[in-house]
Amino acid sequence: MRAMVYRGPYRVRVEEKDVPRIEHPNDAIVRVTLAAICGSDLHLYHGLMPDTRVGTTFGHEFIGVVESVGSSVQSLVPGDRVMVPFNISCGSCFYCARGMLSNCHNVNPNATAVGGIYGYSHTAGGYDGGQAEYVRVPFADVGPTLIPEWMHDEDAVLLTDATATGYFGAQLGEIREGDVVVVFGAGPVGLVAARSAWLMGAGRVIVVDHLDYRLEKARTFAQTETVNFAEHDDVVVHLKRITDHLGADVAIDSVGAEADGNFRQHVTGAKLKLQGGSAVALNWAIDSVRKGATISVMGAYGPIPNSVKFGDAVNKGLTLRMNQCPVKRQWPRLFEHVRNGHLTPRDLVTHRIPLEHIAEGYHIFSSKLDDCLKPLIVPTPA
């Protein structure tokens, strides 16, 4: 089969790999019909995530058709159209039993640090991802779900991570009616978080970024106010000024490891890899909210320490909430929001790229060329 293959930082290409096979009675093999490149895939592409091995296939957002199933699989049959959450979960461990599907203890040798994720380095279990023609799906009775007949494929693929994660980010903010919510980052996750904040009762939503085309999308997709941090000497002071000098009630960090806006953080985090990414967006969130506020962290950071203003968070009495999104737990409510037109994830799609051209897709997305916001990958026959 044809699959995206990692060859080192900033180097990916399409190669022939063996079609995955059933390795356990609980496995399914899925023929991928649509995948996506996630902003967090760029952390792998840029060489920021430890133990990203040459030969790995990325891709944790994908949908497809079941090709075959193991002897123990009961909920799927060949021919089923399925959407697959980016988390790999056993469904029965201490964490899965409590709905913490992203923290499963049985799917990753490094499970004390992180659960299993498709195509996200050996730190997250070493599973190949869905930027390929076929993918092996472990615990097939737990994760995959049939795609509803009424659902558009592009909505379905974005529900496997970006949409669910953005919605979860707003949930973690514990937004109350009338709250002022600041979202750092106008990528797909941040835009969904901003739109979801309205659904949860926010009275005012402000999105912060430095790319004008993404801020324009925030205004049209999520109907928010916007702030271009590059236009202000100190974005924290500006955010304080426009929120009655108190600060927002809730901040959502949807940027993570590669945040721009602070030279020292960017060089030590994103370039020299001396910390687990640039924490500038998180520090802006800590400094700009009011005392007693809640901060939700959705951005992906590496496993090594970060330079975070923890003392300021303590002294302000902030609540910091964070986790990888337990995707499948969000689906029942998100299905209703999509069906009722409250959320249309496919409005975020800007590029549809054949698998054969995926290297160009990574380059366009990484360099923010052509107003790229969300690229989808369309597998093509060999």
TrEMBL record:
Q: Which InterPro entries match?
A: ADH-like_C, ADH-like_N, ADH_Zn_CS, GroES-like_sf, NAD(P)-bd_dom_sf
Q: What is the protein named?
A: Alcohol dehydrogenase GroES domain protein
| Any one Pfam family match given in the protein's UniProt record, by short name | ADH_zinc_N
Organism, scientific name: Kineococcus radiotolerans (strain ATCC BAA-149 / DSM 14245 / SRS30216)
Q: Which residues form the Alcohol dehydrogenase-like N-terminal domain?
A: 25-142
Alphabetical keyword list = Metal-binding, Oxidoreductase, Zinc
Cofactor annotation: Zn(2+)
Q: What family is this protein classified in? A: Belongs to the zinc-containing alcohol dehydrogenase family.
What is a single molecular function from GO for this protein? oxidoreductase activity
* Alcohol dehydrogenase-like C-terminal domain segment(s): 188-259
